[in-house]
Amino acid sequence: QSALTQPASVSGSPGQSITISCTGTSSDVGGYNYVSWYQQHPGKAPKLLIYDVSNRPSGISNRFSGSKSGNTASLTISGLQAEDEADYYCNSYAGSSTLYVFGTGTKVTVL
Amino acid sequence: EVQLVQSGAEVKKPGESLKISCKGSGYSFTNYWIAWVRQMPGKGLEWMGLIYPGTSDIRYSPSFQGQVTISADKSINTAYLQWSSLQASDTAMYFCARRGDSRLFDPWGQGTLVTVSS
């Protein structure tokens, strides 16, 4: 099972919006509404941002939003802030054999 | 507060065995799957496997099947990841995470750094 494909890096200025894509196949992203997104700051554990494609856990800023179209999921960060500079990973359920697959990860830089 | 606390960093030699732990608190440990995730130096997250402590049902990623062993002791709310013979390529940070009701991973443990070097 190959990792989901994410851009290696995305950058934006404070206040701007950026979107990170996560491309899989009909066996994972396209086949289930079980895409989640995680933020990881250097030296820290990942933190859940979005689950079930577009749901935010309590305590997560509404600047983070998720969506999906076909085999590609997306995470949008609006009103970019310096604290958003981190690595971001998508994850998808991939069926009863493989179960889960992570994306390749995207480094977000705030200019 | 739901929390996962992992055991400390380890330095081992190739060929040695190792068992690291992940202790859950603040919730019913037996009712949620615990996942293990590898992060090699400077690389991304890789899902390794899951265990359901209530029944010890275990699922491995095809990439890690036969390479590691996942177990749990529900009497002490602890999940384990172990190797019988470490290799240098096992050097990585290992995270545990609780799988929530909807196939999400939250919260995560703080990570255990495993270094394998002669």
| N/C terminus separation of chain A | 35 Å
Largest sheet of chain B: 7 strands, mixed
- Give the oligomeric state: heterodimer
Low-confidence stretches of chain A: none
Indicate the proportion of strand residues of chain A: 35-45%
Largest sheet of chain A: 6 strands, mixed
Arithmetic mean of pLDDT of chain B:
96
Q: How far from one another are the termini of chain B?
A: 40 Å
Strand-pairing-aware structural class of chain B? mainly beta
Please give the share of residues in helix of chain B.
Answer: under 10%
Order of helices and strands of chain A: EEEEEEEHEE
* Estimated radius of gyration of chain A: 13 Å
Percent of residues of chain B in beta strands? over 45%
The total of beta strands of chain B comes to: 11
Shape by Cα distribution of chain A: globular
Number of helices of chain A: 1
- Total strands of chain A: 9
The computed structural class of chain A is: mainly beta
Question: Can you walk through the features of this model?
Answer:
The complex is a heterodimer of chains A (111) and B (118). In chain A, 4% of the residues lie in helices and 43% in strands. The model of chain A has no long low-confidence stretch (mean pLDDT 96). In chain A, strands 1, 3, 4, 7, 8 and 9 form a six-stranded mixed β-sheet that branches. Chain A has a three-stranded antiparallel β-sheet with strand order 2-6-5, with no helix packed on it. Chain A is globular. Chain A contains one helix and nine strands, in the order E-E-E-E-E-E-E-H-E-E. In chain A, a hairpin with a 6-residue loop joins strand 3 (35-40) and strand 4. By secondary structure, chain B is mainly beta. Chain B has no helices and eleven strands. In chain B, strands 2, 4, 5, 6, 9, 10 and 11 form a seven-stranded mixed β-sheet that branches. A four-stranded antiparallel β-sheet of chain B has the order 1-3-8-7, with no helix packed on it. In chain B, a hairpin with a 5-residue loop joins strand 4 (33-39) and strand 5. Chain B starts with a strand and ends with a strand. In chain B, 36% of the residues are buried.
